[in-house]
Amino acid sequence: MPPSSQAVAEAAAFRSFANGYLREIDPGIRIRHALTDGPPAPCIEWNLRSRRLAIRAEILSPSLCGAQAFGRLWTRHLHEPRWRPVAPMRALQELLGEAYARTDEGRGDTARERELELLGRVLDSYRETARLLDLAERGAEAETGFIAAERALVFGHWLHPTPKSRQGLTTWQARAYAPEEGGTFQLAVFGAEASLVRHDSAVARAAPDLALDLLGPDAAKLGLRADEIALPMHPLQAEALMLEPHVAAWVEAGRLRRLGAFGPRFTATSSLRTVYAAESPWMAKFSLPVTLTNSLRVNRFAELKAGVAMARLLAKSEFGTRHPNFQILADPAYLTLHSPDREESGFETVLRENPFRDGAERGVATLAALTAEPLPGRLSRLEALLRQVCPEGSAARAQAARTWFARYLDCMLEPVVALYDGHGIALEAHQQNALLDVASGWPERGFYRDNQGFYLSESARPRLLRDAPETGAIASLYFPDGEIRRRLAYYLVVNQIFSVIARMGHDGVAREETLLDDLARRLEAMARRMTGAGRAFARSVLDGPTLCTKANLRVRLSDRDELASGDGTGNYIDMPNPLMLRAARGEAGHALAS
């Protein structure tokens, strides 16, 4: 009998929390031990001193660079020899308590309050996962295409303690506004006095005109006054804004009118707050009154300006013409209302180009969906692709997997590092911001999205300011190259590329050691070919004893909003570099052989 949705969700909650604990708090002790109720199996054991307990977790599928897949769990008191089976959620609670005891967050008057708040978020995430599993089980086999992949993230981020936590979104609202449920909705449109509106555009047409394009033929029905500009808004945000005193004052003064629902029916992408309609030339990214994982999802005005500035800068660079297998989705326009006593009014709206229409959406998928843990009894999206391109058997499929991986690096690794090498621009290219065109089964083209995710090199500042002077006035856009190398290593390599390697390893289609070797050879070739920042980046990934990784668990332990924490430096820690460990193993093996 297959496990229930609740059992699968509980195991998933433990998996994501325990992998974060392993990476950020305690790597544990690796053992191989035969317990009384099962055969010998690789395990990891944690001693929880504050709880006077030990937890042992069976490793069903290990990974050198990604998440471990856990099986049975046991616990024992430190003064007793006997191991007893323990439920995943109970084991998770013990790890959570120990995590607080081991960090600075475990002391002080608010420690218990934070611990209980995080436990509540974990339970919220578990319940949401169970609910989505029930929906997925009732649904059809996985569809293909851009929006189908956006809706496929049932388990969420594999290395986050609360991957499906959504505070501020009710179950009935999720039916319309959450990506997994496929709901559709029209945008709520406001008519605003033109003098209130701040906007900019990096393309030939002004942002208010582009906003009318977003609404399609319905734009003619708005009934705008001569001095008004239309502001489309997410319905959830529109409801929240109507309760704000500064918005109520504008409405009362006749400077702002809520016009109603107009335009095509949009649906949420995986980020929830970016919406998509297949017939619209634009996607729109809104602020939402919802806290997802760590953060309240708010568009900052500096990010709006950065999107326009980067669209102008990238257009001047002609990078796209030199790398036709990679496209950066521009966020070339924004609209908002100016409130004198606040930096953001709540109306901040980003317009993003939409290349995924008129059939171009077929076969485009976010890396997060391709590498996600499959639903029970199903293949991962990545394994399904490999079976499509190579149905012959496991031996041939292993070679096909290496070819697929090489073509993926062509579409993602090579252009992202080339952009940094040639232009001093680095991308926050994590697996949810990275998409692949795999309509043929093979990676043909890569895409990058997100105006929050640009890092400009301090060493390239004179050249970049010459092409885009406005970048100099945008907070937290320029970084030292050492910090850029660290963050690019996390987003591009640890988060994205390692997720592909780990997925292929868990699916049994290729050995992780082989793919890590292939990655190392590619980085070596890039280091020889490049001469600037790209070469230094490739060498840092190859030669450094550690790589940067996101401290998702520690951020949650401190109850910190990572999007509101300055330049974000405190959101990262170091982890052992699997490429260096692989090199050490190879040298040891060579020495033994000789």
UniProtKB/TrEMBL annotation:
GO-annotated biological processes: siderophore biosynthetic process
The Aerobactin siderophore biosynthesis IucA/IucC N-terminal domain, residue ranges: 146-371
InterPro entries the record matches: Aerobactin_biosyn_IucA/IucC_N, IucA/IucC-like_C, LucA/IucC-like
Domain of life: Bacteria
Domain Aerobactin siderophore biosynthesis IucA/IucC-like C-terminal: 403-563
A GO MF term: acid-amino acid ligase activity
Family classification: Belongs to the IucA/IucC family.
PANTHER family registered for this protein in UniProt: L-2,3-DIAMINOPROPANOATE--CITRATE LIGASE
Stated name of the protein: Siderophore biosynthesis protein, IucA/IucC family
